[in-house]
Design a protein that fits this description.
Keywords: Hydrolase
Protein name: O-acetyl-ADP-ribose deacetylase
CATH superfamily: Leucine Aminopeptidase, subunit E, domain 1
CATH architecture: 3-Layer(aba) Sandwich
Number of strands: 6
Number of domains: 1
Radius of gyration: 15 Å
GO molecular function, one term: O-acetyl-ADP-ribose deacetylase activity
Bound molecules: ligand AR6
CATH topology: Leucine Aminopeptidase, subunit E, domain 1
Strand content: 15-25%
Shape: globular
Number of helices: 5
EC number: 3.1.1.106
Order of helices and strands: EEHHEEHEHEH
Enzyme class: hydrolase
Amino acid sequence: MILGLLKADITEIQVDAIVNAANTSLLGGGGVDGAIHRKGGKAILEECIQIRNKQGGCKTGEAVITTAGNLPSKYVIHTVGPVWNGDKDEKSKLLANCYQNSLNLAVENGIKTIAFPNISTGIYHFPKDKAAQIAVKAVKDFQRIAEIEKILFVCFDDENYQIYKEILGIENK
Ligand code: AR6
């Protein structure tokens, strides 16, 4: 498995699946969720509504999969990060679950390449440094990692990008 880092807009990434930092309603919102629904078109929302009707949305830490509509990827995996409010242990576990459950869904669907945004570090206010440590550890600890070819961390803001660079040991050039 190759672990990569990019500073980019995740809606432009060509991989089998991009991950969305959604909310429990699965009906869209701001941040990366808004960008994915805007660019991906209504096919994504339609599938989200079907999932909602079947299972009543998505719980924090869990993940669901839909088409990627007009996006360059094949699928969108929607996961719901925790809202940061200082309850450190519980929230950290839930954030790790987002990465692990997204990877589980990826393996179940034959997905070989996947891109993650920095879940919970925007509107949900999870401390960026802590979130990055959790994300990298969760991915490295994933049991079925050999079944995935490439995992990309896609940072949108420079602060997250610098944090990931340091954690992953990438030199500044
Ligand atoms: N590509 C990649 N990363 C992005 C993009 C993009 N196009 N846009 C923003 N980010 P956020 P959350 C980064 O707020 O904190 C929504 O309303 C951003 O810089 O999108 O998990 C949902 O519906 C940040 O680092 O998600 C939920 O209600 C990261 O994505 C709520 O926000 C996550 O920021 C979820 O909040």
